[in-house]
Amino acid sequence: MAIAHSFVHPIVLCGGSGTRLWPLSRQSFPKQFTPLIDNKSLLLLTLERLKKINPKIMCVGAEEHRFYISQDLGRLNLHAAMLLEPFARNTAAAMALAALQFNPDDLLLFCPSDHHIPDHDAFHHMVQKAATAASNNQLVVFGVMPSLPSTAYGYIQKGIAKNDSSFEVVRFIEKPNQQNAEKLLLQGDALWNAGIFLVKQKILLEALMQHAPDILESCLDAHQKSITEAFESHQFVRPDGKAFEACRSQSIDYAVIEKMDNIAVCNFLGAWSDVGSWNAVAQLTPSDQDGNRVTGNAITYLSNDTYVHAQERLVVALGTSDLLIVDTPDAVLVASNKNAEDVKLLVEHLVLNNLTQATAHRKVARPWGWYDEVDWGDSFKVKRIGVNPMASLSLQKHHHRAEHWVVVKGVAEITNGDDVFVLNENQSTYIPKGEVHRLRNPSDKALEIIEIQTGSYLGEDDIVRLEDNYGRTQ
Questions:
Q1: Residue 296 counted as domain residue
Q2: Beta bridge partners of 167
Q3: 289 and 417 co-located in one domain
Q4: CA angle 12, 17, 22 (to 5 degrees)
Q5: Which of 70, 359, 416, 440 could bridge to 392 as Cys pair (CB 3.0-4.6 Å)?
Q6: Do residues 176 and 88 both lie within one domain?
């Protein structure tokens, strides 16, 4: 299979909170980074699909998610640039910032990081066809042949065929109600809007200048004042925060694309899902004869049309019908599958009630590994900490807490004040309040410790970093 044009530059849009997949997806760890399919994240699957088009991929994401992105890039040995947005400003600003990194005639392929497209060959063929149309100074949107009258997607009504394998765009259609979705399906000329775009850099910037000049101006200002830093085999590009904060937040569809004349749509005939709800996730899992679908440690008994996602402990669904059950260590969702689209509203309700489970997991990923808050009280907290091979935490100290570390797996190199020593399994050390310390994994195997914190204040902001491998010193 021939690979798409070498001058196509893939740009992966890694923003979005994925609140419809709560409680697995949360603001601190959105769905594009969670291992949803074959123990791979949607971002990793996207990168696998794009690297055959051009391995020089740019990722646009939030500063707080930069190490999730770099980890997936590292798994594929991709040397990429990461454009780190200081604030979330929707897709128009993200695409404008990315476009400013390229030359006028470069073809830019903008792809969401959270879509599932299993047929790579079909996707590459689609890009090839779209590249012909985009080379003729058109912005090309990808449309998917609808398989059902979905109310979860926007639609594109296509017109007559052009001589470059694309079609004219008659109109864009907002997410319809059920009746209108059924009419669109029967029309035969309506496609789901996949949110994937291919366009020359200069065509996109000209469209922004015409239809959203304020967004382009803010992004240009932020771009001109940006800072570029090297990290391992990657590059961090940080636009100026003050300039970007002033940028208006709007999607590229509303701000620009729906107002353009030189626009075309290409049919994508392969399987596609935006994995935008638990119903969509369930459809990616094989069902039994009763329509039940199970991921993880779960059993259905005397049940039908029930989806269960269980990460760790056993979850049993007995006599259930038409349910979605999602279990995580600190929150469980039980919902009618008819209300899958309402999970986003539920999360908004949880946020208003100041519930931390709405935005953060109990287990938190870090660039060096992870930690899990096992137990806590007024003056103590117990964490289980995992450190990746050859990784280390920052050299740090705390003003308000002392810590006791017990090694339960692997080997730990400890810095405790002026002393540096090694601890093996079942050995421990005590770190007094205010003492400079560091935890490092010197081996090629995983390290796990139990950390017991005691003190008057145990917040994560009581960390004074003196030295850090990940650029987090203040």
A1: yes
A2: 161, 265
A3: no
A4: 130
A5: 440
A6: yes
- Per-residue pLDDT at 3: 38
Report the number of distinct structural domains present in the chain. Answer: 3
The DSSP line for 74-105 is HHTT---EEEEESS--HHHHHHHHHHTTS-TT
Residue 263 and residue 381 share a domain: no
Query: What pLDDT is stored for residue 2 in this prediction?
Result: 35
| Secondary structure (DSSP) of 347-368 | HHHHHHTT-GGGT--SEEEETT
pLDDT along the chain (474 residues), means of 10: 61 90 92 88 96 94 88 88 93 97 96 95 94 95 92 92 92 93 92 96 97 97 92 84 94 94 93 92 94 96 98 95 96 96 95 93 86 92 95 95 97 97 97 97 96 94 89 61
Residue 363: the pLDDT is: 85
Strands (E), 102-225: 107-112, 139-144, 155-161, 167-173, 190-200
250, 324: one domain:
no
Q: What is the 3-state secondary structure (H, E, C) of 194-230?
A: EEEEEEEHHHHHHHHHHHCHHHHHHHHHHHHCCEEEE
Domain end (from 239, 268, 297): 268
Say what angle helices 42-50 and 66-75 make with each other, to 10 degrees: 50
User: Which uninterrupted H or E stretch holds 245?
Assistant: helix 241-245
Could you give the CA distance from residue 284 to residue 230 in angstroms, rounded to a whole number? 38
Give CA separation, 106 vs 65, 95, 239, in Å: 27, 14, 21
Judge if 252 and 318 occupy the same domain. no
Together in a domain, 367 and 325: no
Cα 218 from Cα 445, distance rounded (Å): 46
- pTM value? 0.87
Report the CATH number that the domain containing residue 449 is assigned in CATH.
Answer: 2.60.120.10
Token code pair at residue 235: 């590059």
11-34 b/e (C-beta count within 10 Å ≥ 16 → b): bbbbbbbbbbbbbbbbbebbbbbb
**CATH code assigned at 128:** 3.90.550.10
> Which secondary structure element, helix H or strand E, spans residue 301, and what is its range?
strand 293-301
CB 281 within 8 A of CB 309: yes
Range of the domain at 106: 8-268
Residue 354, C-beta contacts closer than 8 angstroms, at least 6 positions apart = none
Element (H, E) at 346: helix 343-352
C-beta separation of 389 from 383 below 8 A: no
Rounded CA-CA distance 440/387 in Å is 7
